[in-house]
Amino acid sequence: MESMRENWTDERLDDLNRRVAEGFNRVDADIRALRGEMGTRFDSVNSRFDSVDARFDAMHGTMIQFCGIMIAALIGLAAAQLGVIVTQL
Q1: Please, which contacts does 59-68 make with residues 24 or more away whose CB atoms are closer than 8 Å?
Q2: What is the b/e burial string over 42-57, where b = at least 16 CB atoms within 10 angstroms of the residue's CB?
Q3: 66: left (phi over 0), alpha (psi -120 to 50) or beta
């Protein structure tokens, strides 16, 4: 069996072209809307990361202070032990 051959007239091609263009315009609009939504969501995520970074910076400062105090305490302990050893000689 032979299938019927379709004739594509200029009007039908123009109509197809218009429908394809409308479809792409809808897709473009959807993509622009998604980009805007993603931008706002990423901004909120970035602000959360900024607060986490601030907390890590504060913890880093506290750790540096603690290490400095421990080193000073160890130096003081070593000096005290050296003083005891020197007085016993």
Answers
A1: none
A2: eeeeeeeeeeeeeeee
A3: alpha
Per-residue pLDDT 10s for the chain (89 aa) are 556 556 778 888 999 999 999 999 999 999 999 999 998 888 888 888 888 899 999 999 999 999 999 999 999 999 999 888 888 87
Q: Which two tokens stand for residue 81?
A: 């032990």
pTM passes above 0.90: no
Buried/exposed 75-85: b ≥16 CB within 10 Å, e otherwise: eeeeeeeeeee
| Distance between CA atoms of residues 7 and 49, nearest Å | 61
**Residue showing tokens 């479809």:** 23
Question: Quick one: which H or E segment has residue 34?
Answer: helix 10-88
